[in-house]
Write a structure and sequence with these properties.
The chain is α+β, with helices and mostly antiparallel strands and 130 residues long. The chain has a single domain (5-126), classed as Roll (Nuclear Transport Factor 2, Chain: A), CATH 3.10.450. The chain has helices at residues 5-18, 24-28, 48-61, 119-126; strands at 31-39, 45-46, 62-75, 78-89, 94-106, 109-116. The protein has a 6-stranded mixed beta sheet. The longest helix has 14 residues, at 5-18.
C-alpha cells in the first residue's frame, strides 16, 4: 500500500474527527500495533495497548472533545497539523489548548503521533497530571 499525500491526510483527518463520537475503537482504528504516541512534554507510549489505555483515560475524564484543525500540511507518509483542542471535563470545566501534531504514516496506519503543547497550561486548565 502506498502512503500517498491524500491517503495520509485522510487518515489523520479521520482520526482527529473521531474524538467527537467518543468510540475508542474508531479512535484507535488508524494506529499500527507498534505505534508510538508521544505527548512531547512527557514520556512516549509504545504499542497500541498503551495508546488505547491513554485514550480511554482521556475519554473517561472528558465529557466532550473537539479537535479543531487550523492548518494542515501533508506529504506522503507525513502530516503536520496545527490545531486547537477543546475539551469539556466531566465537572464542566473547559480546556482550550493550542497543539501541533506530527503524524508519521506507514502502510496505511499511524506509526508515530507526536503532540507538542504547553504541559503546564493543559494541567492548570484540566486539573489532570500527564
Amino acid at each position: 500500500m502506498t502512503d500517498t499525500k491524500e491517503a495520509s491526510e485522510r487518515l489523520v483527518r479521520d482520526f482527529l474527527g473521531s474524538w467527537q463520537a467518543r468510540s475508542l475503537e474508531n479512535i484507535c482504528s488508524g494506529f499500527a500495533d507498534d505505534a508510538v504516541y508521544h505527548n512531547v512534554p512527557v514520556a512516549p507510549i509504545e504499542g497500541i495497548a498503551g495508546i488505547r489505555a491513554v485514550f480511554q483515560a482521556f475519554l473517561d475524564a472528558f465529557a466532550d472533545a473537539k479537535l479543531d484543525i487550523l492548518s494542515l500540511a501533508a506529504a506522503p507518509g507525513l502530516v503536520l497539523v496545527e490545531r486547537i483542542d477543546y475539551f469539556t471535563m466531566n465537572d464542566g470545566r473547559k480546556v482550550v489548548l493550542p497543539v501541533t501534531g506530527v503524524f508519521e504514516v506507514k502502510n496505511g496506519k499511524i506509526a508515530r503521533f507526536s503532540d507538542y503543547f504547553d504541559l503546564a497550561d493543559f494541567e492548570a486548565q484540566s486539573g489532570m497530571k500527564l
